[in-house]
Amino acid sequence: MIKKYSKPWWFILPGMILGLITLGFPIYQAFRNSFYDIRLYRLQNQLFVGLENYVQLWNDSIFLLAVRVTVIFTFGCTLLSLICGISIASVLSSEKIRGTLIARFFMAFFIVPFVTTQVVTGVMGRLFIWDVEFGLVNYLLSLINISGPAWLLDANLALPAAIVTNSWRLTPLALLVLYAALATIPEALIESASLDGANELEIIFKVKLPMIKYHIIFVSMILITSAFREFDVIYSLAGRGPRRATNVLSLMVYEQGVSVANMGYANAIAFTMFLIVSIMTIIFIKIFSLDDVGV
Amino acid sequence: MNLKKNYDFIIKIIILLIWLFVSIAPIAVLFMASISDTALFQTIPELFSFERATLENYRISINQGNFFFHLRNSLIIASSALAVVLIVCTPMAYGITKLSSRRSKSAVVFGVLSTRFVPYVVIALPLYLLFRQIGLSGSLFGVILAHLSMQMPFIVWLMVGFFDGIPDSVEEAAIIDGCNPLQVFYKVSLPMVLPGLNAAAILAFIMSYNEFLFGLFLAGPNTRPLTVGIMRFVGGVEVGAQYGVVAAYASMIVVPIIIFALIVNKYIVSGMTQGAVKQ
Whole-model pTM? Predict the structure, then answer.
């Protein structure tokens, strides 16, 4: 009854119009521009080139490298944040700690990396965490007599350092969602498992994790999409990195569009990114059959 | 047995303390560097010795770095985008939960989600080109427009979840009492999701305050937010000399937002977990 009565489209309409202006229009422009040759300094002469920009992508070794870097970065961040998130969430939700003041205290501070401004995270990483001589990481390594490398200047280490830095920022998200999920598992279930002789690790892997399967998929999806589009952290941490080791697609779009001023090509990369995200969204909706149960 | 349990508990607290260190230590180093005289480079123990404490870095950030000017821009951008989005998107989210046709519902959900996950360069790049063509480049309007595109799907997505939690019976009772659709919305449903609305608004505000990419692409000399303002001390020839200034600038950006986040912790937690714990 409420559904018929409430005239939903009148509520949706203003938002839809604003969405078409702020989201639909730029995405359409990215699509349209990707078929043109547009140079930033002579905008009047836009030349229609059809699919040429897209064809060029497949022969551009810098683009192919950026795809590789983006994939490694995205899955690296997702995996690392998930592992850290699950581990800490299991500890935090264990019998004696969950729901206590101790848990609330820790949780409040565990959120700090997530609200830390991304460029500050990047700049902090560059100057005070990964620096060869003055960084925190190499200082901690020196305590156990290891002399740390120049992380961000080494083509093999810059990407892992960027992954760790961005995971530092994303872990709270995984941690929080999984902690909330773990807290919903009834105590009785865990007790009966431990009466059956399961040890703590078995309980985590055989009882708890299967029960929060959907939450893990859910949070993975958020992590994947936000690592995939990350720009701020990488730009301020390492830029495109030594030998383009950290040159993810977002950075390449900025470089091609603004620095090289090759707008058509940059738009083709950007629109390709949008297509990838759309496919991920469809998979996400299918997994959760969101249209059935509401969002 | 009891001994083993205590031992377990201590191990767990140690793990949590280590993670606390991981979460907080970088910020602590940053802050200590900001009050250190870093004309000379200092190692981590030297930073924490307070031997060369100074406020000079803050003075430079505020004077040469125009800190408060950029802060003003950041606040204008974040709050105007938020105001528009709240007014337009709260009803929209409500409407989405009331759609009866499956097909239109899944179309709307796809629209919201695919734009929720959209890479920000896909928005920023075409807008950058467009604003150059029509002579709006560097304007506050342009940056705010981009921030709308970021906040909109985020708020709609969260609010749909909160509105969905209202039982139909409550709204039906209001209809029987003679409320028209608009009155049902703002007299009955909206007050019930107010905590959710707070959570969504707080997160969206933090998101915009922290945002850098749109500022980099779209802001001009008069409209640059803090996140772009700090960059002039990061790059350039004098990199070495500017460590302390960068640290001071970064601390001034980040410390208020962290304190704010600790105060409104409850809302942030509910906003971040919304949509995840329903299955």
Answer: 0.94
